[in-house]
Amino acid sequence: MENQLLDILTREGVLVNVSIRFWRGTKKLRPEDIGIKAEDLSERLISLGHKRLLPKEATASLALVESRAHSLIETNTFPFLNGLAHFLPNLKLEEITGKLRGLETEFWQAKETFLGRYGALRASASVEWRTMAQKLVSDPDLLLANIEASFPSVKQMERFFGFDVRLFQIAVPDRLGLDTVTVGDQQAVMLARQQAAQAAGDKIREDVQTFIADCVSTLREQTAQLADEMLGSIKESETGVHQKTLNRLVRFIEQFKQMNFVNDTEMEERLEGVRSELLSRTAEEYRDSASSRARLVNGLSRLRDHARALANTDNSQVVNRFGELGRRKFHLAA
Questions:
Q1: Considering all CA atoms of the chain, what is the largest pairwise distance in Å, rounded to the nearest integer?
Q2: Distance, CA of 115 to CA of 3 (rounded, Å)
Q3: E strand or H helix at 299
Q4: pTM of this prediction?
Q5: What radius of gyration, in Å, describes the C-alpha atoms of the chain?
Q6: Residue 278: which of 290, 267, 286 has the closest Cα?
Q7: Rounded distance, CA 230 to CA 155, Å?
Q8: What is the pLDDT of residues 100-159, one digit of tens each?
Q9: Fewer CB within 10 A of the terminal residue: the chain, N end or C end?
Q10: Is 168 helix (H, G, I), strand (E, B) or coil?
Q11: Contact by Cβ (8 Å): 88, 14
Q12: Using CA atoms, how far apart are residues 26 and 208, in angstroms rounded to an integer?
């Protein structure tokens, strides 16, 4: 069963990893940077820590792109093997990779803007650091010299920047390569590597079933959370129901369908029922009718409670159905 689930999971999506690098403009101060001996500083009580070489706003645009990219991945994927990578369902692949390409373009534009201002930023920061150093330490020139030395030149900056998106297929190792070793060690190394490959494969297969069940629970819990937040918004709003509150549910239902690679029919059918029952009216209609507003609140409450109950139940039936459906699709395609 575990082997079959892994094969099916591999056909339903890919693993994605996004790595973004840029010069953070920080330096970890050492005791000697401020003119004191290391032995005179108790690390149990005092930590010099990382200090900013440039003000936070200098790299704000780069940090914003990084934050948006990570948020995009977190929102549209499932963490795989404790966050080692993220599983991206096929239905979301084109959309997410397209958005990542757009963010990458913004990143490189922000990098060029930053480098174009780097000289001026560095000069301004030096003035600020000199003022601060005179207040903080007895030898401000020493601290300032160490700060100045921590600024890379523009030519050195290139290696600090990167925007890498990597897509992987999930695979179990069948063997590990053998580097050049002495004849006496070769057999022992080969056996150890075969055992390591077998152990890694077994661990991945075992984790796949748990991962699929976790994906089901995650989507169900997100459904409950959204319904709860909508109820809170309706309760706290002076006007009652906003259209943007209803639109959140519309978008979530579409997102759920795209993320539902496991084919959780029970939750998806419940959401479609909610769409039909609750989203056929506008926010204005709900505001104008107390009875309609009561039906909306009751419907959202039932959705929340049902989704939360499902999230806390045994998902093995959904996992097994996913495996059976995947095998049927595979045989039909063949």
A1: 86
A2: 50
A3: helix 290-311
A4: 0.71
A5: 28
A6: 286
A7: 52
A8: 999 999 999 999 999 998 888 878 777 776 776 666 666 667 667 766 777 788 888 888
A9: C
A10: strand
A11: yes
A12: 40
